[in-house]
Every structure is written in structure tokens, then in C-alpha cells.
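User: These chains co-purify. Model them together.
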Amino acid sequence: MNDMTANTATPGGTPKLSVRELSKRFHVSGGGLMGGEARYVHAVSDVNFNLDKGTTIGIVGESGCGKSTTARLIMHLINPDSGKISLDGDPVGADPASLKKFRRDVQMVFQDSSASLNPRLTIEQSIMFGATIHGTPKAEARKRSHYLLNRVGLDPARFAGRYPHELSGGQRQRVNIARALAVQPKVVIFDEAVSALDKSVEAQVLNLLNELREEFELSYIFISHDLHVVRYISDTVMVMYLGQVVEYGPVEDVYNTPQHPYTKALLSSMLSVDPDDRTDAAPIQGDPPSPLDLPSGCCFSPRCSHVADICRSLSPRITGTRTRQVACHLVDPAAGHPECAT
Amino acid sequence: MLQYIVKRLIYAVPVALAVSVICFSLVQIAPGDPLAVVLPADASQEIIDQTKARYGLDKPLVTQYFLWLGNALTGDFGISIATGRSVSAEIASAIGYSLGLAIFATLIALVVGLTFGLVAGYNIGKPIDKIASAVAISGVSVPSYWLGVVLVVIFSVHLGWLPAMGAGINEDAGLSERLSFMVLPSIALAAMPAGIVTRSVRALVADVLTKEFVNALRAKGLSEFQIFIHVTRNAAPTALTVIGVQLGYLMAGSILVETVFSWPGTGLLLNNAILTRDIPVLQGTTLVLALVFVLLNLVVDITQPLLDPRIKRT
Amino acid sequence: MTMISETQNKVQPEAQVHVSRGYWQTVWRNLRRDPVAAVCMIVLALIFAGAIFAPLLTRYDPAVGSIVSRLKPVGTEGHILGTDEQGRDMLTRLLYGGRMSLLMGTVPVLLALVIGGSLGTIAGYFGGRLNTVIMRAADVLFAFPSVLLAVAIAGALGAGVGNALVALTIVLIPPLLRVTESAATQVRALDYVEAAQASGAGSLTIIRVHVLGNMLGPVLVYSTSLLSVAIIMAAGLSFIGLGAKPPTAEWGLMLNTLRTAIYSQPLVTILPGLFIFLVSLSFNLLSDGLRSAMDVS
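Assistant: Joint model of the three components:
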């Protein structure tokens, strides 16, 4: 299994996980019995990406940009308003059976290592739970849980019978990883899974994740606000702003030659020891606008230092090649109407 | 704020209607023919039908309900089977006594509860807190009807200080004599709310004292007394809210205590209605007391954010 | 970081696995170490045992008295706690009375826990419109003060233990519904429930494995304090002539019939109520003790 390269997408091959036009808005107020205009938050709009076998896609952006909602939509923990998700070519969500199978194939690790473990179950019971749901006999599930504990670096003799509150944050997150792997998934979603850990522990866990990806031929969706971590672990990166994808591409391409002003600004805020690494983009001004009251046109326009007239009136579509895309009028005049191009 | 009040008022209407439905159904769940008490046992079918028509009992249940509701809204709850007086007259002559008793008991509960709660909350963990807390939980746990009997044993039987029963309603009774009849039932009734107020205020004071701003006040050089005033002002809305709800419970919950002391309020009226199976009185009294309770809760809900600006209601 | 290679992955024998003390074992240990709670549990155990084993503890019949030995004071030879207005042995009546009073106080709480608890868990876990419907229905019953509703229902149905049980159960459902609903709503929002959903578990499995166990704490604390309320209300119904009927021994009913003896034998008169108070107080203190015993990480 050493054929892993940054982009394993073979032309014509079916990507492992395909997400198409995924959108969700939340009803906020009004429109009910009390009258008033119905108000919505557009949490996620029109997210598209492919995830190939053995690769990692990183999703970055400020808090509230829709990263976590995207993860929950993929898992169907929240029902999407629209969008198609398929795994190995099989569409998901049409019937309960396909959803159950999907939820075995795709697992999730959450940020809060403590809240994501049932305090009344032992470590072993927590890890076994998912497998027994899918019909694995108890004894086998226990054996596997001990194997996985070993694999994530926790001695089963010492940890299997303990309760979550007896473990450190890093140890709990290892348990959560073992729990996710217990059902033998194909894809694992990490939602800020290392963000709460100390830097040294974080590095250990990231190394572990890389090893596990290779050993179990996994694909990762790695959500983080930490740009360093995403660069370290991802093959592809997707930058989100206010629920929309603004830039997408191979991680080194995006980090070295960012095209969207938001990506540039985001990367410039990243501390770097290497002076050559620094971008010359202006830092982001102000706070993101309220998702309740999105600006007309490009939603980054109020904070963008290169804003043009068209940006304020027309929302740019994401354009580019299959592997490299950006949503900005200034980068690709075709993003808007051709006749509006400057 | 105004929107909250309007919303709360509108919400009270379906609740009040549902309460009336439950009160109406009390007659439906009562075993036996409601006409049995009105008609002689050998009444002919014709007379039975006539009487049914007169009371509207020949109509469908829903129609019966709206007829009953319409009458109730105009203050007509029917005729007491036991006394032959109108139910509304029976309630009118009794409700004042219950209200008086409930208010008196509420005042006792407020004074005792605030005092004990402040003392305990200020001395968390110390012996005096333990004593106050023990008294409070005893107050919450004591059956009011038994406490009434115990009070009578001590203050009427042994000491002979206070009257054991009745309301002292003879013509020439002075105010102090009338009040003396009220003391024991009020105390019996006040025990539980006093315990509840003590426990709420104690928890609140203990919580306020751990807050940053108290340290800030101390740092600013305020005296302990000034801080005490501050803490009290923070605790007062909670105490008032608890007490407002308790007043409603006392109005309706005094049935047992009124029975012990033969206090001529709605509780005794209910008790007599139960003994004589006087369903119209049972129904009417229950409706009035429940509506008073709904109203008091409404008042508490609306005044609470006015008293305590920290509570934001939407 | 120590990485364990594949060859070392042979799982150790089960016997060597360290097993920590579980949450409920810890709570139980804390509770036993709390002197007040321990005393309450002993008092309750004694009163319940006295009621259950009443026939073994006394040679008198609770329903049969003798006219010559009416209203004997406490401490009379042969009648250690005196006799009542019909010459029946008070100790015997108190032991047998415990059977009825404890039954009438505990059964409605258990029934209401099953009914209200199920509805509350469903409302809390599934949320949405189902929640609104269930909780609004509970609000209506909440619009009545509990004592009034119990008296009105029992009063309309007529005297009798069965009717009193029905009335008390109806009255106790809404508060338990609220407590379980809020507990279920809280647990439901936690990541481990979401994680369980993400592993493809069905709602019933998630409720059974992940929700119920984590709701149990607050619900248990509340139910224990509700037992105190129910004991007082149940005896209260018998006290005003609803519930148990003479000559049944029941604490509330005994208190009522003994009131005529308040001047001649005040001490005997207050005995039945003292037992109601003791049981009620013990449950309340136990509820407090349970709450602090659960205050563990």
C-alpha cells in the first residue's frame, strides 16, 4: 500500500466520497403564527468536493464559517436542504438502510473529547458500542476494542475498564479515534479533533492519524481553524467563508499561491518562522458580517482590500479546473457575467 | 417587554380553557347518575326526560360543555345539592376566608423564610446554617394537617393561649379576637412555603456571595452592612417569585388545614362537598381556585422581569 | 510516544484488565458515608420493614379493639403506644397503617415515573413538534395546584384507595414529565449521543444505552423528594375522607378519627402524623444527600 501520493485521483475512477451542491439554511425567526418575515441563516451553501481513497481534505475557515455544519450534514446528523452525497458511487440518504451502512463507513471524531464519551460507560464499552450496533458479536467487539486501544497507544489492561473522567484529554481523544475505527470505516471526519489538545500531544495524535490512515487505507475530512495542522495532514484544502467555498485545491498550491483575497488574508495571519513564506496580503479588516444579514454580491466584499464595484453587486461563482478552484471576480472575470468583466 | 406581556396573556387563555374542560369533566368521571339526587327513585321516564332537558343533559357533551362554560362565565355554577343555595353564593361567602388565611400565611412564610434564608446563606457550613437548614427541610416535610393538630395540642390544649377551631365570626368579636383564630391555621399553612423560601434564598445568597462583584464592593471599602443590603436586594425578586407562586398553592392547598381548624373557607366547602357528594360545589370551587392559581402565576410571570432586570423574557 | 507493533498486539487475558469503580458504586459509597443520609436510610428501612412484617411484630388484630381499654395513654402495659378511640392497639395500627400509607405514597410515584418518565424522555429526545404537544398537555395539568387537583379528582371519583391512587398518579405525572424532559433534552445535545447516531444506532438503542443512564441522576433525586410529597398527599386524602376507609389502618385516617381524643390523649393523637412526618422528612433528606453524593466528576 505504498502507492499513496498527494493526488491519487485517477481520471475516470469513482472518487470514494462525492459531495454535490450541499446546502442548508436554518430558520431563525418569523414566518410562523406570530407573522413577520421569515428569516434564515444560510449555514452552508453549494458545497462540492471529492475525496479520494487514502487522501485527506482539510476544511479551514474562521469559526462560524460552516465547517462543522458541513461535517454534520455529510453525516446526516442534520438533514440537508439539498445536495447529493455518494460513497463509492452509492447515493446516501434515500432509505434508512443506506444511511445505516453509510454511518458505518463514515465516522466522526469531535472536538470535545470529554463530551463525546458517555461518562457512564467504560472505555471498552464505548469503543464496542458502534460495532455491536452493526451486529458484531460482543466477544469479537471486545477483542477488537483491545486491539484498537493498543493501536492508538493505550494499554488495554490499564485503560479498557476505566471511565472517561479518569483519562487526560489526549488519552480521551485517542479513545475517540479507536471508537471511530471500531466499525471499520472508510472515511473519518475530524471536527476540530486536535484543537483542544496541548501542542505536544497534538503532534503525537497527528502522527498517529497519519499512521492509521496508511494502515487502514482511510480517507479523512479534517476540519480545523489551525492552518498549520491542516497543511501538515491534508492533501487537498477547501477554504470556507460564511458557508461558501471560496477556494479549493491541492494544499501546497493553495498555501504557496493563494488566489482568493480571503485565503491570502487568512494565510498572512498565520505566524511563520520563514520570512520567504510570508504573503504580502493585507490582514483581514473587521469581523465577518452577521450570517443573518449577508452583504449583497460577494460576501467577502465588505472586508476585502481589493474590492471592486462588481463585487458589491454580484456574487461570484466558483470556477476553475477540477482540482483548483476559486470564487473571485478579480481572479476569474468569468465568475460573474462576462460583460461585467473589468 | 410589552410583547412578552401580550404573549403571556394570550398564552393564559388556552390554559384557562383547558382548566375549564378538566373541571367540566369532573362531573363526567363522577360515578352515578347526576339526576339521582334531584329525582325521586320511582320517577317516570317522562319526568326523567323532562328533567334531563331542563338541565341540558339531553344534548351532546360538547354542547353541554359550552352551555356550562357560558353559565360559569356569568358566575352561574349551578345549585348546591346539599344546601340548595347557588354555588357562586357558597364560594363567595367562603373565598374571603381562604384568601385572608393564605395572605396571612404568606406574610409569615416571607418573613420567616427571608430571615432564615439570609442567616443560613451568610453562614454556609456553620452550625447556625445547619440549624436553619434543618428547620427549613422540616418545614417542607411536615404535613400541614398534622402540624395543625400538634399546634392545637400545644397552644390550645396545654397552654390554652389560642382558640382551637372556627373563625370567631360572632358579631361582637373584636379584631384581636378574630386575629387570634387565624394564628394557628396560618402557621400550619406557612410551614411549607417558609421552608421553600428559606432554601431558595439560602442558595441564592450563597451564590451571590461567591460572585466577583461582592469582592469588588468589599475592595471599594463598603461596610458589611452595605453589602448585606446589596445581597438582600439581589435575593428579594427570587423570594417574591417563590412566594407569589406559593400564595396560589396556599389558596388551593388549604383544604386540609381548613378541615383541621373548621375554618369556613373554600377548603372546608370542598371538604363538605366531598362528604355529601355535592358535585356542583366541587366543580365550581375547583374551577374558581384553579383560575385564581392561573391568574397568580400570570402575575408572577409578568412582574418577575420588572422586578429583576437580569431576567430577559421574549 | 510508545507505538506498539503488530506482533505485540496479542490481547492480555481478561483477568488482568483494570476495572475502575463505576459511577453508581461511587455514589452509593458517598451516600453511605453521609451520616444524615445513612440515618435516613436506616429509619426508612425500619419503617418499611415494620410495615411489611407487621403480623410478625404484634399479636393484636389492627381492626379489633376492646371497649374497656379505649384511649389508654402511651406506656400502658400491653399497649406500649396506647390505644385508640376504639380500644385498638396503637403500635399494631401504626405498623399496619404503614402498609397502606407507604403503598399509597410510593405506588403513584412509581406509576407516574413510568408514564411521565416515558413521555418526558420521548419529548426530550425527539424534540420538535412532538415535544410541544406533550409539554403543552402537561402545562394544563400544571395549571392546577397539585393538592387541589388530587382532591378534585378523588372527590369526583369518590372515596377508595384505588381512586386515590388514580388521582395521585395523575397529579404526579406532570412534574416528573418536566424533569425527565429537561434531563433528556440536556443529554440529547451532548456529543456522545451525536457520536452514537453517527455510528448508525437506532433511537431506541441510543435512549437505552446513552440517554437513560445519564438522566437517571437528576430524575432519581427528584423522585425521592416527590416520594415525600406523595406520602403527605396520600395520607391527606385519607385524612379528609378520600382514600382509605374505616376500619382500615392508615396514618392519615387514624389522625382524623383520633382528633376527637385531642383533649384526653394528645400524645396518642399525634402519633400517626409523626410517622408521616418521619417518612416524608427522611425522603427529603435522602434526596438532598443523593444530590450531593452525585456531585462527583
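Residues 8 and 104 of chain B are 29 Å apart (CA to CA).
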